[in-house]
């Protein structure tokens, strides 16, 4: 029975009803807000399978809409001790090789409350099938993942870097469910100028075999001298497949955004982080950590104008001139 269906004869009560409804709504919203900020999270402390104590964490100063995104993980391998009530947010950096994600990750890891564990799915047996993927994610988000990026037990944001060619696209449906169920926030990090990305990719592939730095292959460097050595190599780009290659890369980026559109996410471009200091503050706010100045020891490898970095530049110029990719020819990473 619908209460509103019998109201016709009682129109005179309408203002009173409206006032009542308004009151109930406001009171309800207030109670809900109050309740949410007082929420307690039970933590069972077990010893030999017996519950010996129970602990509760209170949530303070977190806006109600963000509460689903905070977690109180219980690592299997250690106790979080005085930080067991420090809320933790889960994130993943979704990117492609040679898009600045290595540099971006060192910036994040310079923050005392962020742990980003690198390309955990570069190891193929972790991405054999969806079960191994979920097992790996569970271990990471329960704070049991040990790497050089692992902070103390006071970590407030934990994540890793997932390249689009490391299983995330193949199993996107199940992974989307996992992300939404566990409230994992995504940071998409792409490079606008995919021609520069290709130069970096080819140079890095070359160094994999050439090992130009005293016989070791390096994807990232920490000094200008090392960068100079690696930048000496000028790749020849296959002009025949260049346009197909570009449209494939752009399509892959667009697909990933479409697949994971329903997650909480932000989209960042490498060029914007290079040019805009506030981009990094925005990321820290998104991760719910106090905003700090982030630093990295990494040095950019390819800093020269593009024509000096490609052997068959004239051919590449002709191939891209007049196409939708023309702007890549002029564009510089640094606006300065
Ligand atoms: C960040 O880490 C520091 C040092 O471990 C800790 O004292 C602080 O409470 C943490 N802050 C947050 C917001 O988690
Ligand atoms: C997934 O891969 C693991 C490790 O290779 C294997 O043990 C397991 O049986 C596989 N599971 C499924 C459902 O295929
Ligand atoms: C290679 O090794 C030599 C001697 O060990 C050192 O002086 C030089 O700086 C190294 N070069 C690079 C590019 O690491
Ligand atoms: C694009 O070109 C790069 C470098 O030659 C190559 O590694 C990559 O596989 C190509 N991708 C496609 C989809 O053709
Ligand atoms: C810098 O980044 C911030 C946050 O991402 C954005 O709001 C702002 O418009 C950017 N400024 C410029 C000049 O691009
Ligand atoms: C680039 O294309 C324009 C017309 O679209 C043409 O006028 C110009 O000569 C081309 N540049 C080169 C270097 O081929």
TrEMBL record:
<dbReference type="GO" id="GO:0008146">
    <property type="term" value="F:sulfotransferase activity"/>
</dbReference>
<dbReference type="InterPro" id="IPR000863">
    <property type="entry name" value="Sulfotransferase_dom"/>
</dbReference>
<comment type="similarity">
    <text>Belongs to the sulfotransferase 1 family.</text>
</comment>
<feature type="domain" description="Sulfotransferase">
    <location>
        <begin position="93"/>
        <end position="297"/>
    </location>
</feature>
<dbReference type="InterPro" id="IPR052796">
    <property type="entry name" value="Nod_factor_sulfotransferase"/>
</dbReference>
<keyword id="KW-0812">Transmembrane</keyword>
<keyword id="KW-0472">Membrane</keyword>
<feature type="transmembrane region" description="Helical">
    <location>
        <begin position="16"/>
        <end position="36"/>
    </location>
</feature>
<keyword id="KW-1133">Transmembrane helix</keyword>
<protein>
    <recommendedName>
        <fullName>Sulfotransferase</fullName>
        <ecNumber>2.8.2.-</ecNumber>
    </recommendedName>
</protein>
<keyword id="KW-0808">Transferase</keyword>
<dbReference type="InterPro" id="IPR027417">
    <property type="entry name" value="P-loop_NTPase"/>
</dbReference>
<dbReference type="Pfam" id="PF00685">
    <property type="entry name" value="Sulfotransfer_1"/>
</dbReference>
